[in-house]
Every structure is written in structure tokens, then in C-alpha cells.
């Protein structure tokens, strides 16, 4: 990863190959996940922490100075970006946890993985408030929509699901299932 600022090229930062990445909303922190979770200080353009994770990491999300990383061992790790310490581990899946996201209002963390479930965690306490089967096969990713009450989940059968979560430990009775992302665009969820 290199950056050009004006006519100056900042030095290359080695982040490893492939993997998942995310940038904090304030642009101060980037995180890259492969076999090693790398936390990058963007203003200083340096790797702040390089954290080897036992089984690798599939997906990450950042809220404030906290990184949420889904691992191949079925756990979501909560990592303090300032210290690089793992502060909590949540058992999220019976297989790899492939998708993680934090709601825009900062109240919830969603995860999905090989078991086809979508789990909702209270972000500050780490309490699992809801877990429901959504896919017949693995779930591969989750994203909260801007209103923090709907989650788009992508996975095997049915492909794309929109889940309404009202924050009161209740799912809408029917999970809206769509066969592909084109349906999402037709609903105005993607431009």
C-alpha cells in the first residue's frame, strides 16, 4: 500500500497479500486481515500492530478504536486498536466466521459464517441478543444499512437476505430473501 500526497510518494507499507480490510470512519486507522491482523496508523503511515491470530482472520470491522475480527475458528475477536490487545472473544460460529459489521449507530455487531446463522451482539457488552438461521449453506458477509435496523446478509441459498432488527431482540417475522444483488438495486438499497 502506497499513497501519493501532492508530489510526494509516501513509503510502501507491507500489509501482506489479499485478505479483508476496513478503514475507520475518521480515517485514522486501517485494518488488514490475513493470517495476521495488521492495524495501520494512517496519518503516520505505519503498521501500529501486527497481531498473529491462531487460525487466521476472514473479515474485519472498525468502530472508534475497536476492531472486530471474524476468525477461521468461529470466533469474533474484539481488539483494542491502540494497544493491539485482544480484549474479548465471542463464540460466533461452528465454523469460520466469514462476515462481521458494526451498525452505524454503534450499538450492534453482526456476524455470519459457515453455520448459515446471522448473530447480533450488543457491541459494548458483547452479549449475544439474537441468532437466527438465514442460509441453507454458509453466510459469507453482513452489512448494516445506514438506519442500523436492517442488515443485508450474503450467503449460499438464498443468496441475499435483508433482515429487519428493531434492537429489542426481535426479528421481523419474515426474512426478506432475494436471489441476487440486482434485487437489492431494485429496492433502492444500492445505487
Protein architecture, described:
It contains one helix and 18 strands. Strands 3-4-5-6 form a four-stranded antiparallel sheet, with no helix packed on it. A four-stranded antiparallel sheet has the order 7-8-9-10, with no helix packed on it. A four-stranded antiparallel sheet has the order 11-12-13-14, with no helix packed on it. By secondary structure, it is mainly beta. The chain has one helix at 181-186; strands at residues 4-5, 8-9, 20-23, 29-33, 36-41, 46-52, 57-63, 66-71, 75-80, 86-91, 97-102, 108-113, 117-122, 128-133, 139-144, 150-155, 160-164, 176-178. Residues 1-6, 8-12 and 168-174 have low confidence and may be disordered. The radius of gyration is 17 Å and the shape is globular. It is 3% helix and 50% strand.
**In terms of structural class, how would the helical and strand content be classed?**
mainly beta
Largest sheet: 4 strands, antiparallel
Order of secondary-structure elements:
EEEEEEEEEEEEEEEEEEH
Helix content range of the residues, please?
A: under 10%
Q: Which geometry do the CA atoms define?
A: globular
Number of strands: 18
**Radius of gyration computed on alpha carbons:** 17 Å
Tell me the fraction of residues in β-strands, as a range: over 45%
What's the pLDDT, averaged over the residues?
78
Q: What is the strand arrangement across the widest sheet? A: 3-4-5-6
Number of helices: 1
- The parts where pLDDT drops under 50 for at least 5 residues are 1-6, 8-12, 168-174
Amino acid at each position: 500500500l502506497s499513497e501519493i500526497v501532492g508530489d510526494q510518494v509516501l513509503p510502501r507499507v507491507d500489509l501482506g497479500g489479499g485478505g479483508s480490510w476496513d478503514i475507520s470512519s475518521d480515517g485514522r486507522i486501517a485494518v488488514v486481515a490475513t493470517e495476521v491482523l495488521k492495524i495501520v496508523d494512517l496519518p503516520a503511515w505505519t503498521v501500529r500492530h501486527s497481531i498473529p491470530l491462531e487460525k487466521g482472520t476472514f473479515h474485519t470491522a472498525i468502530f472508534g478504536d475497536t476492531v472486530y475480527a471474524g476468525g477461521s475458528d468461529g470466533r469474533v475477536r474484539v481488539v483494542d486498536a491502540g494497544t493491539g490487545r485482544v480484549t474479548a472473544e465471542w463464540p460466533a460460529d461452528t465454523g469460520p466466521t466469514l462476515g462481521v459489521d458494526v451498525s452505524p449507530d454503534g450499538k450492534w455487531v453482526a456476524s455470519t459464517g459457515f453455520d448459515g446463522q446471522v448473530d447480533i451482539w450488543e457491541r459494548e457488552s458483547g452479549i449475544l441478543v439474537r441468532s437466527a438461521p438465514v442460509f441453507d449453506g454458509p453466510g459469507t458477509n453482513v452489512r448494516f444499512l445506514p438506519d442500523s435496523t436492517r442488515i443485508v446478509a450474503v450467503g449460499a441459498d438464498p443468496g441475499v437476505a435483508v433482515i429487519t432488527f428493531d434492537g429489542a431482540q426481535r426479528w421481523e417475522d419474515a426474512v426478506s430473501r432475494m436471489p441476487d444483488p440486482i434485487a437489492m438495486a431494485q429496492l433502492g438499497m444500492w445505487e
